[in-house]
Design a protein that fits this description.
Structural class: alpha/beta
Helix content: 40-55%
Number of domains: 3
CATH architecture of the largest domain: 3-Layer(aba) Sandwich
CATH superfamily of the largest domain: SGNH hydrolase
Strand order of the largest sheet: 5-4-6-7-8
CATH topology of the largest domain: Rossmann fold
Number of helices: 26
Shape: globular
């Protein structure tokens, strides 16, 4: 017994010592921080280091979003969990569905304060979401939203992932549980330190190709079924933990590009049968020839022959679906294109089996279900999701992300979780600005993605990228992606470009985008007011400056600008009051204060209050006897 227990006791003592000296802690999901003098909880950008070796892959990061450490009774807290679609790839800030959802809910329920926290992380799957859940529940959420399932094969610890701990779901969950031990973290750190650096090419390689171990996974094969079972079990555990904690969950069904994304790979029966392979090749060539001649009906007959011979080959189903679309048979096309996606052996898009599992498990547990797939179908031509709403194989474009937000908002409304009557009927339109710059930031990432495996394998030539709209936006987006990585400054730079061309209304769109993400910051409002001033829209400039006043303690220059704008509208009483506020504000420099006093003297003269104007001029000249403008004004009105 002593021989058996002594090593165990030594390990326990070592674990306790590591905890005592806070050595080798696991990366936390949340960290405490101070923001503008108040205590907040911040998302840890480096939490993905739990799962990824930084010497092998570029570790994805969480945006360091914050939320209140203490919450009011009026706060409704939502956590959104999932992979890259939840994160909002390839877009960011105001485009992902959690950000759009927050704006929708704030418009629909103006009496409530919503915290919608985005825990979406690229290249992770249900194992990571399950690992996050205990820490999420500690933050006492009112609701958890799930959108996960596309990364079950290639995401961290998926059955075909380069980040692996075997294929057994039970073993992976046990390993992730062990990672809470400092001993395990110590061993892991030693393994990472001893790992030779990978051959990363950040400019050209993508996370997709770095995390995938490669190989084809046949539809309904043993590996496919094992992965589906792991997904089912992880989802059951997630929902059970949330139900026991009394936290409701709404899960979203999975959508991907059916119409405009050919299969990324194929498995053919002819690979092991040369005669069959030859026959399949002949039929495929004949089908393609008929398509070139626009003989769609005859081409469809041949396509069905190909499917009968080689039903596992995704490309035959895709070919048939495109022909059916050309013939106007959208129902048949939807069926064929869905079969093509399900049989695609490069499994970056979830098959419909994952939607079936998601729906069955959610209903059995009593969880909510947002049918995102159906929403995309209803909003797509012929009911078949494609490039209209999805910018690559599965990630929505800004319109698609708004549609996702509306789907989750609808389910929240139906569930009566928010114990407040909505303002008006239905879900309001989302007013958030998404500019050409936001589009280009995302589409440039997609452009890179589509040059690499599994789409292609060639060097990225950025000069061939076609801007989404405004040509200059692509250059600003490239500078943002490869140089400074400051999203706010990118929008300001784009606004400066537009302002120099006199396109002030478009420039205000850039400021609106920043304001949507930072509604408590005065800077975008101040820049917007300046743009209104350039267009001589004094009323709009006044309203914008008044809004900015509420967001800062440093009000001096805002009062000054507000007074000048009001004077343009002949609101001289208000202008005098505000410029007096500016003069006594500590933020103004001596030069600015003198200029404000001079303008105050002008205002007093305009309202025929000459005595007050004279006192102000005397004050200026007492401090600066040689101040030219004041001397000129004194000579003009008071020296005769």
């Amino acid at each position: 017994m002593v021989l058996l227990l002594t090593p165990l006791l030594l390990l326990v003592l070592l674990e306790l010592s590591l905890r005592l000296f806070n050595l080798f802690p696991r990366e936390p999901l949340f960290v405490e921080a101070v923001q503008e003098g108040r205590e907040v909880i911040q998302l840890n950008p480096d939490v993905a280091r739990r799962y990824f070796n930084p010497k092998k892959v570029v570790v994805p990061n969480l945006y360091p979003e914050t939320f209140s450490r203490t919450r009011t009774e009026n706060t409704f807290r939502i956590f959104c969990l999932g992979g890259s679609t939840t994160a909002g790839f390839p877009f960011e800030f105001q485009v992902p569905f959690p950000a759009r959802l927050k704006n929708l809910l704030a418009s629909q329920y103006p009496r409530r304060r919503f915290e919608v926290i985005n825990l979406g992380l690229s290249a992770v799957n249900s194992f990571t979401v399950l690992d996050f859940i205990p820490e999420v529940l500690e933050q006492k959420p009112d609701l958890i939203l799930l959108y996960m399932g596309h990364n079950e094969f290639y995401g961290a610890y998926g059955s075909a992932s380069a980040v692996t701990a075997g294929r057994s779901g039970a073993l992976i969950r046990f390993y992730l549980g062990l990672q809470r031990l400092r001993l395990v973290q110590m061993v892991r750190a030693a393994v990472i330190a001893a790992t030779p650096a990978g051959q990363q090419d950040p400019e050209n390689s993508t996370l997709m190709e770095q995390i995938a171990a490669g190989g084809s996974i046949a539809f309904r094969s043993a590996q496919y079924e094992l992965t589906l079972d792991n997904y089912r079990r992880n989802l059951e555990l997630i929902l059970r933990k949330c139900r026991r904690a009394g936290v409701p969950v709404i899960a979203g069904t999975l959508v991907s590009n059916l119409k405009d994304q050919p299969p990324l790979g194929s498995i053919s029966r002819g690979e092991s049968d040369p005669a069959l392979s030859h026959k399949i090749g002949e039929l495929a060539a004949r089908c393609d020839g008929l398509l070139e001649q626009e003989e769609f009906i005859r081409a469809l007959v041949v396509a069905h022959e190909l499917i009968a011979l080689d039903s596992l080959n995704a490309s035959h189903w895709y070919r048939a679906g495109r022909i059916q679309l050309a013939l106007g048979d959208s129902l048949a096309a939807l069926e064929s294109l869905t079969e093509a996606k399900d049989r695609d052996p490069v499994r970056f898009r979830a098959s419909e089996d994952f939607n079936h599992v998601l729906t069955a498990v959610a209903r059995a547990d009593g969880a909510g279900l947002a049918d995102i797939r159906q929403l995309f179908a209803l909003a797509s031509p012929g009911g078949i999701p494609g490039a209209e709403l999805i910018c690559d194989h599965l990630h929505p474009n800004p319109g698609g992300y708004l549609l996702m937000a509306r789907g989750f908002a609808r389910e929240i409304g139906k569930s009566s979780l928010v114990q407040t009557r909505p303002a008006g009927d239905g879900i309001p339109e989302n007013p958030v600005a998404v500019t050409d710059l936001d589009w280009d930031i995302g589409l440039l990432r997609v452009y890179k993605l589509k040059h690499r495996w599994p789409f292609a394998d060639r060097k990225v030539d950025w000069s061939l990228y076609k801007p989404h709209g405004e040509t200059a936006a692509a250059g600003v987006a490239l500078d943002y992606l490869f140089n400074h990585h400051n999203w706010v400054q990118a929008h300001y730079a784009m606004a400066d470009t537009l302002s120099r061309r006199g396109e002030h209304e478009k420039a205000r769109g850039e400021y609106q985008a920043v304001l949507a993400c930072y509604p408590e910051q005065p800077q975008p409002l101040l820049k917007m007011a300046q743009s209104y001033e350039a267009d001589a829209e004094w009323g709009e400039a006044e309203k914008t400056l008044q809004a900015a006043l509420q967001l800062t303690e440093k009000k001096g220059m805002i009062y000054y600008r507000l007074a000048l704008v009001q004077s343009r509208q002949k609101k001289l009483a208000a202008a005098i009051q505000n410029i007096q506020h500016a003069i006594i504000s500590p933020e103004l420099s001596p030069e600015q204060r003198t200029a404000a006093k001079y303008d105050l003297a002008l205002f007093f003269i305009a309202v025929k209050r000459m005595e007050y104007a004279g006192e102000v001029l005397a004050d200026i000249l007492g401090e600066y006897p040689g101040y030219g403008p004041a001397l000129d004004l004194k000579r003009k009105y008071f020296d005769n």
